[in-house]
Amino acid sequence: MTFSLTILGSSSALPTSERTVTAHVLNVHERFFLIDCGEGTQMQLRRYRIRFAKIHNIFISHLHGDHFYGLFGLISSLNLMGRKVPLNIYGPPGLDKYLDLHFSASTVQLDYPLVFNSLDMEKAAKVYEDDKLMVESFPLDHKIECCGFIFREKVGERRIKKEAVKELSPGIKDILEIKRGGDFTDRDGKHWKNEELTDPPRSTRSYAYCSDTRYNEAILPFIKNVDLLYHEATYMDEMRQRALKTGHSTAGEAGKIAASADAGILVIGHFSSRYKKLEPLLNEARLQFPDTVLAEDGLEIDIQLTPEG
Amino acid sequence: MTFSLTILGSSSALPTSERTVTAHVLNVHERFFLIDCGEGTQMQLRRYRIRFAKIHNIFISHLHGDHFYGLFGLISSLNLMGRKVPLNIYGPPGLDKYLDLHFSASTVQLDYPLVFNSLDMEKAAKVYEDDKLMVESFPLDHKIECCGFIFREKVGERRIKKEAVKELSPGIKDILEIKRGGDFTDRDGKHWKNEELTDPPRSTRSYAYCSDTRYNEAILPFIKNVDLLYHEATYMDEMRQRALKTGHSTAGEAGKIAASADAGILVIGHFSSRYKKLEPLLNEARLQFPDTVLAEDGLEIDIQLTPEG
């Protein structure tokens, strides 16, 4: 029941010798979701031993090169590796034409379906859903249209109290019904309320990805109480004017958003290449929100399940 | 008077955790020439501390992604770094439209001129010339149109024999004339033949880049006697049929070409990702041509001047 995030790249537009441009991988129960795909993502996937074949869904926040120039190489490599199953891409309108042009110009014939899903860049919308996970996008405040994403594990079934049910020996159909919240009548006709037989479902986990954005409290409703919040922190507070102008945030602002959102953990990243040492950014964010960590290439953050009330 | 090659990437189409896709940098007297530009080239340039600003000329051999998908990121990064001077790209016809489409689709406005020079893919042709260097392209034998490049240092001036000239004390104009091969008449009217006053110019150095290609002796006239020969060696001899089918060479074939060309040193590269260890490829090439080395990311080969005749 894994729910863990791996940072593949933590630099802003200019990569450094230690920091690659942006890409994250979220592992939800061994399903791997790639979020943004800067140049070199396929090399980083190899470096951190994440199997390409396990990726079926890629989310692209916006069309600045440091967030998607790695798609061409990754898509080509998957083809060379013999992929046959579809690859889903969720991205800004226009990315599909862009990819078409690209592959036709470089005479690449894909042997697997590339399925493009256009994002609504103007309002929050459901983007993806399976039996374990729901993904929504929400608008950010950048120089061009840009989306954040929130990944929410779905509420599971109620957990049967083994001791309480032992004597009643319900059938399989009954058990399924009880797990879904139903009451139960035993062989003697006695009625049992669901709460007598079950504990609530385990807590669910969530991850919010706030790609390039200015500090903007309009995103708070979407990220409220998130377990793990990634928020960009391109600059330090002393460069706030530049952050505003270029559509980015400071480390202090990232901390402030995390505090207002009552997040569990804050990861900051997308650092300007001018910062050789990142501790000052970390300290600035921690003044606002102590549970902050630095995104570093290869960092893995595992969010554990916690039993609930 | 440097003439040295740095290998930025040595893998074939699928990069591995140790080997990036193809890119080479040739340093000729501190002018840097980038040859092919696979994904991740800008990161490799940083890793090996080659200053972006020193690159003014990029040569692209063909339009397979592993040889040019790094252009988009590199060109964008140069823009972010404030480049104003032109960047020359020498590549297959169509690459210019491709780059235009790319930057217009990703809304990148370049603040410096990108000057495209279309290669003749069908016959050998001069591509570039300055006061120190001449570059020619020649056709290779790949699945799509593909060029090799040969970089030849130009013949320098004759070298004045200090001892012989000391007593004659020629003026500056006379010295320039003598260096160019002229004779000299001294104050006493005595005539000196140039050979009495000078030694021949230093030898010149050359580097041939044979990108993706089948074994083909038609390239021999272009690479004859080259000091440093790079030739791809995607497979071992046992996979010769696959090499033929995919338009590539084996390590043994690369060695054979180097021997027939009387090359100085052979560097083999573009290794298939199936080879975890490269010694068997090296040994196979060395059976044909002992002075073979393996291209490895970061390898630098310095070609020294040797006095001549």
Number of domains of chain A: 2
CATH architecture of the largest domain in chain A: 4-Layer Sandwich
* Fraction of residues in H or I helices of chain A: 10-25%
Q: What is the CATH superfamily of the largest domain in chain A?
A: Ribonuclease Z/Hydroxyacylglutathione hydrolase-like
Structure classification of chain A: alpha/beta
Strand tally of chain A, please?
Answer: 18
Task: Indicate the low-confidence ranges of chain A by residue numbers.
Answer: none
Summarize model confidence as the mean pLDDT of chain A. 93
Q: In oligomeric terms, what are we looking at?
A: homodimer
Radius of gyration of chain A: 22 Å
Order of strands across the widest beta sheet of chain A? 6-5-4-3-2-1-18
Largest interface: A-B, 35 and 35 residues
Distance linking N and C termini of chain A: 20 Å
What fold name goes in the CATH topology slot of the largest domain in chain A?
Metallo-beta-lactamase, Chain A
Main β sheet profile of chain A = 7 strands, mixed
